[in-house]
Structures are given as structure tokens and as C-alpha cells.
Amino acid sequence: MTILRVFQILLVEDNPGYVRLTEEALKENTMPNKLHVVPDGVEALAFLRRKGKYAQAPRPDIILLDLNLPRKHGKDVLAEIKNDNDLKRIPIIVLTVSSAEQDILTSYNLHANCYIVKPNDLDRFIAVIRSIVDFWFTIANLPPGD
Question: Is residue 141 part of a domain?
Fold first, then answer.
């Protein structure tokens, strides 16, 4: 009997609409996955460091990170993760509405693994999420978890 690995995805997103779209896109995906959602940067870091209510949180295989977040900006979250020896190898896909060159440069300078501007079109957004999952879970070799 083969045991399928369930891939863990952390979505850091404060917009309920984008959360629902991401859930929909992942529902019909052939790769077994579990989506965990946190609404801001402070919660994201608590999840990753297994603090408080996140004490039993799994280590995500990838992080989908919005930049424009309440309480702690996505760039600050990205910087903290990539400066943390226990977390820095987790691939981070910045998934945001900003197409500003400075945001793109800053994100890559902070070692984001990928920068994607959220498409406005529903079908295109779903296709992007599915492409991310397909790439990271079937083509790329992820670093070992804990």
C-alpha cells in the first residue's frame, strides 16, 4: 500500500475573496494538499514558529505570501523568514496585486523564490494557483521538512 504525502501550503492572505479562490483552485488538484490560512504577518510568523494556538502547526512545504498585510507587512515577514535558520529554506511565492518594480526587486532581494502578480481574471487566477502547485509539488525538489 502506497501512502500519499499530503503537501502543506501556508497562505498568508487577508482578503477572503482570494482565500476562497485559492481554496477552489486547490480543491480539484490531483496532488494531495492541506491549505492553512492566516490573515496577517504576525499570525504567519506565529504559525511558522508554532507559537500559541499554532503549537501543533505543520511545517509548510510552500508559503503563498501576500505583501499588503495588516499588522506586519509581507516584506517584513519575508525578511524574517529568510533570516531564520529554521525557516529560510521554505519556498516563498509572493502572490500579490502589486506589479510595482520596487516591490518585485525588494522581494527578490529578500530571497523570495518567486513573484507573481495576482491575475484579475477568475479563470487565470485558478490556473496560476494550479501551476504553482504543479511546479512546486511535481517538478521542483523541495527541501526536507522537519
Answer: no
| Predicted model pTM | 0.93
Cα 11 to Cα 1, 2, 36, 61, 64, distances in angstroms: 31, 28, 6, 11, 5
Measured from the Cβ of residue 124, the count of other Cβ atoms closer than 10 Å reads 11
87 domain residue, yes or no:
yes
End-to-end CA distance of the chain: 24
Q: Is 137 strand, coil or helix? A: helix
For 63-95, the pLDDT digits (tens) are 999 999 998 999 999 999 999 999 999 999 999
Instruction: For residue 88, give the CATH number of its domain.
Output: 3.40.50.2300
Integer Cα distance of 135 and 146 in angstroms: 22
